[in-house]
Specification:
The chain is mainly α and about 400 residues long. The chain has one domain (about 5-180, about 195-385): Growth Hormone, Chain: A (Up-down Bundle). Helices cover about 85% and strands about 0% of the residues. The protein has helices at about 5-20, 20-30, 35-65, 65-85, 90-120, 130-160, 160-180, 195-210, 210-240, 250-255, 260-270, 275-295, 300-325, 330-385. Helix 3 (about 35-65) crosses helix 14, helix 11 (about 260-270) crosses helix 13 (about 300-325) and helix 12 (about 275-295) packs across helix 14 (about 330-385). The chain is globular and about 55 Å long.
């Protein structure tokens, strides 16, 4: 099997799954219902809880019965999600769609990364995992930028429903591409029963015996959770700075474009610098950046947001690569799912604090809390990683 055959299909799947201008309209729906910060946080928590509950079971299924099946299922669930959105009239319809989105995310997260790594490994290219993983993320951002640019325009010219139909058709294309994926050798479907306890015990034992992996993965969880609050609340932040809505689309495009360089150069950075130095640098930027955003309430704080987004692109390929280079293929999707589970668990806990401080001190207080979380983790990481993460 030529690994490039699977990779370009994964690129196409990611691109189609993120080419969804419907999400632009979801935000309009929320704003029309005058949802508070806490209410938006609760919807994010619903999504995160769904992922937390299903992440590991779907990872186990992917390892046991095949990664391709789970990727196909994820694409099918996204189609169902947009069928609901086409006919949505009340908020609970959106809640149901978000629930399906959570299930879809669970089924695809560990499966995609595992399929990518094993496809490369079969051709002796596994050391380039960070490069191709970063390019997958680039596909995400490019398609999201296109969706953001055209979503509002199409809605204003042709109505909200067209965006949902475009998203549905895009999801159908992702289903077709998923069906064309090739399962790497040794990962064919088996009829053996799934021993959940065995998989969980093996995964826990792996993390217990590899504390350096735990630290690297935890750093990815903290940074990933922190970044999600930029993604969710930058509109509100710009509103508080009295920036006209006219510039919102431009700002959205800029913060996504800024993440591209990090994803592209992460592969080269890990070959030139130590992991510890890279992770510490990114965490320092996040800690100080969020502090600046929460305290300095003027246009210069937008620069801090830009710097946060610029450095954020480095993190995911680095942490994912560090993990996958050290795990066995038979447990790849399961252990990767633990990483995603932890990210959503951190997101839930941080989200509760963000919601509380935002209700007391507006969105500035929420970003201040995120800075506090990053600072506490930075102090812990500096001491805990001194002897464990050497390379």
């Amino acid at each position: 099997m030529d690994y490039k055959d699977n990779i370009w299909k994964l690129y196409a799947i990611r691109f189609c799954q993120n080419l969804i201008p419907a999400y632009v309209i979801e935000r309009l729906f929320w704003e029309q219902r005058d949802m508070t910060i806490q209410m938006v946080i609760y919807t994010e928590i619903i999504f995160a809880i769904t992922v937390v509950l299903l992440e590991v079971p779907t990872g186990i299924i992917a390892d046991k019965w095949g990664r391709k099946k789970m990727i196909v299922l994820s694409s099918l669930l996204q189609c169902c999600e947009f069928i609901i959105l086409v006919f949505a009239t009340d908020f609970w319809h959106f809640a149901a769609a978000i629930f399906l989105a959570g299930i879809g995310r669970s089924t695809s997260s560990g499966s995609e990364n595992a399929l990518l790594y094993d496809s490369l490994k079969e051709n002796g290219k596994e050391q380039a995992f960070e490069k191709y993983f970063g390019r997958l993320n680039v596909c995400d951002f490019i398609s999201a930028i296109i969706a953001a640019m055209c979503g509002s325009f199409l809605a204003s010219r042709f109505g909200f429903q067209l965006n949902y139909w475009i998203s549905f058709v895009s999801s159908l294309v992702s289903v077709w591409m998923a069906l064309l994926l090739i399962e790497p050798a040794g990962k064919s479907i088996t009829n053996n029963s799934i021993e959940v306890r065995k998989y969980i015990k093996t995964s826990v034992t792996f993390f217990r015996k590899n504390p350096e992996v735990c630290l690297v993965v935890l750093s990815g969880m903290v940074i990933g959770a922190a970044l999600s609050f930029i993604d969710e609340f930058w509109q509100l932040y710009l509103n508080r700075l009295k920036i006209p809505v006219l510039y919102f689309g431009l700002f959205s495009t800029v913060i996504m474009l800024l993440r591209l360089p990090g994803n592209i150069i992460a592969y080269h950075l890990k070959n030139r610098f130590r992991y510890r130095g890279i992770l510490v640098s990114v965490t320092v930027v996040f800690s100080s950046g969020f502090l600046y955003v929460s305290v300095i309430k003027d246009f210069t704080s937008l620069g801090a947001i830009f710097i946060i987004c610029l450095f954020s692109g480095i993190m995911e390929p680095i942490t994912a690569g560090y993990l996958h280079h050290r795990i066995d293929s038979s447990m790849r999707a399961t252990i990767d799912s633990f990483q995603s589970l932890g990210l959503n668990a951190v997101l839930i806990m941080t989200g509760l604090g963000f919601g509380y401080f935002s209700s007391k001190f507006d969105v500035f207080g929420g970003f201040g809390f995120v800075s506090f979380v990053c600072t506490v983790f930075l102090v812990y990481f500096l001491f805990a990683s001194k002897k464990t993460i050497e390379s």
